[in-house]
């Protein structure tokens, strides 16, 4: 009898401990160790949010639901608007916007429409481990939708890019359901830029707002230099490991589903999750907007944290009354605008001091974080992960990789080959210190001005 009572007490204590840890776990804990993002890298996010919101409007000149401050878009720069009747249910509605101010060609895709059967069919067109692509697994329905959009709009995007001097960025953006389509669309274009006239990977960007879990971990880390995912505090979708089709089948009992998934994932070790190569994740580099604190009422000035996590990539369900409201694009746009203002405040205090983080230095930091994430994935034995050396070589050989684009799009598969150690070391050593270049090419005169050295003579005359 005493043994039974002791076992019951142990079980009760275990359940109480689990309930305490889950109830006190908040969304900000996921990014507690991440560094703060800079205003320059986060600046496009509010603008992209407004572009996605513009998809819901039929006429930007007479908007029905404008955000605070308006859309701030030029209606004359809207190149094309596609609705459900034109997509025939193969993709969510989207628009193409030519942003001359920021030198971007934006294809924005709206989120899930709860009353449209075609959106549910797209979500249901998938099973775990059903579709392989580029050495990993992706959501089959979202991939088919991305390929359809690319086939429909490739000529339009190619024409816009060529007419503007082949210098504009190619930006794909989406929210919720549209975020998965945009992310996979950017992956295709990054590998097969010839479909859009030879767009290099460096000019391809994707902003995935309230991102759906649409690709395996190796792809999520590999394309962190292309895809930027934005998560608002407690948003349920990036944290829910349940397939999308099961989530939206249970949308009317979502709290019950989240609780059951929370209970199940408690007993699944982290290592087992990482070794499951069919498990899907939110793509790319993560930007986490945090605005609430534990046991505090109301919203605080939002801050933005960023990283490329490998383990602990939004793996914990947050039992919060804001889990669904934080998924709304309206709230994301509002809080992203506030966060951007907070990030810009320190730099606007004085104009005589340089910024704490220089633009070139921050660019190198982002590249280093990407390499560190790839190496971290290798150390954790993630299946089919691409090392930093292979990533550099693939960026140098974009044209060779894009020559097999049509074949890859038809089969939705891409074979990855390992490069030799000699080629990898060559790419690593190809980077030259900027100070050494300056010393070789320039010298200072008596007035400390930088003048270009002349060939065959060390003397430099002042002018």
Describe this structure in words.
The structure is a single chain. This protein is of the alpha/beta class and 463 residues long. It contains 18 helices and 14 strands. The chain has helices at residues 2-24, 39-42, 44-54, 84-87, 117-124, 140-163, 177-191, 217-222, 244-249, 254-266, 270-275, 329-348, 359-379, 388-396, 398-402, 405-411, 421-429, 434-441, and strands at residues 78-82, 94-99, 104-109, 131-133, 136-138, 169-175, 204-209, 215-216, 227-232, 280-281, 285-290, 303-307, 442-444, 450-452. The strands form four sheets. The protein has an eight-stranded mixed beta sheet, sandwiched between helices. Strands 4-5 form a two-stranded antiparallel sheet. It has a two-stranded antiparallel sheet with strand order 8-10. Strand 2 (94-99) and strand 3 form a beta hairpin. The chain is globular. Mean pLDDT is 78; it is low at 398-405, 411-438 and 452-463.
Q: What's the number of helices?
A: 18
Rounded Rg? 24 Å
- Unreliable spans are 398-405, 411-438, 452-463
Task: Tell me about the largest β-sheet.
Answer: 8 strands, mixed
Please report the total strand number as a whole number: 14
Q: Name the average pLDDT.
A: 78
Helix/strand-derived category reads alpha/beta
Give the proportion of residues in helices: 40-55%
**N/C terminus separation:** 101 Å
**Spatial order of the strands forming the largest sheet:** 1-2-3-6-7-9-11-12
What percentage of amino acids are in beta strands?
Answer: 5-15%
Task: Using the alpha-carbon principal axes, give the shape.
Answer: globular
């Amino acid at each position: 009898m005493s043994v039974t009572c002791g076992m019951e007490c142990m079980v009760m204590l275990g359940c109480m401990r689990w309930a305490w840890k889950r109830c006190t776990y908040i969304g900000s804990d996921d990014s507690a160790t991440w560094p703060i993002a800079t205003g320059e890298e986060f600046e496009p996010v509010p603008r992209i949010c407004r572009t996605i919101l513009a998809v819901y409007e039929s006429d930007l000149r007479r908007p029905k639901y404008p955000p605070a401050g308006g859309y701030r878009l030029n209606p004359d720069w809207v190149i094309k608007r596609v609705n459900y009747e034109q997509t025939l249910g193969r993709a969510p509605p989207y628009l193409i916007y030519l942003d001359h101010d920021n030198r971007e060609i934006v294809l924005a895709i709206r989120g899930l429409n709860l009353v449209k059967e075609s959106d549910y069919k797209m979500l249901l067109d998938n099973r775990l481990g059903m579709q392989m692509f580029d050495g990993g697994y992706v959501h089959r329905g979202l991939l088919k939708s991305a390929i359809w959009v690319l086939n429909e709009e490739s000529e339009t995007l190619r024409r816009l890019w060529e007419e503007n001097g082949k210098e504009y960025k190619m930006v794909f953006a989406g929210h919720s359901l549209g975020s998965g389509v945009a992310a996979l669309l950017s992956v295709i274009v990054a590998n097969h830029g010839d479909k859009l006239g030879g767009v290099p990977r460096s000019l391809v960007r994707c902003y995935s707002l309230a991102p759906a879990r649409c690709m395996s971990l190796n792809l999520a880390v590999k394309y962190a230099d292309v895809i930027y995912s934005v998560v608002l505090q407690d948003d349920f979708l990036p944290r829910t490991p349940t397939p999308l089709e099961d989530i939206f089948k249970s949308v009317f009992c979502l709290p019950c589903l989240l609780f059951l998934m929370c209970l199940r994932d408690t007993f699944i070790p982290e290592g087992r999750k990482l070794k499951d190569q069919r498990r899907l994740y939110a793509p790319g580099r993560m930007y986490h907007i945090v605005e609430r604190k534990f046991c505090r009422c109301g919203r605080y000035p939002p801050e933005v944290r960023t990283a490329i996590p490998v383990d602990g990539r939004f793996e914990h369900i947050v039992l919060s009354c804001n889990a669904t409201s934080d998924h709304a694009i309206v709230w994301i746009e509002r809080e992203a605008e506030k966060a951007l203002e907070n990030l810009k405040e320190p730099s606007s205090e004085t104009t005589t001091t340089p910024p704490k983080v220089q633009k070139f230095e921050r660019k190198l930091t982002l590249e280093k974080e990407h390499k560190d994430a790839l190496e971290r994935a290798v150390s954790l034995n993630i299946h089919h992960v691409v090392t930093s050396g292979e990533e550099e070589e693939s960026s140098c050989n974009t044209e060779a990789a894009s020559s097999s684009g049509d074949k890859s799009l038809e089969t939705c598969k891409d074979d990855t080959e390992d490069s030799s150690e000699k080629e990898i070391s060559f790419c690593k050593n190809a980077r030259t210190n900027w100070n050494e270049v300056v010393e070789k090419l320039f010298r200072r005169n008596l007035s400390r001005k930088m003048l270009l050295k002349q060939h065959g003579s060390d003397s430099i005359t002042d002018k």
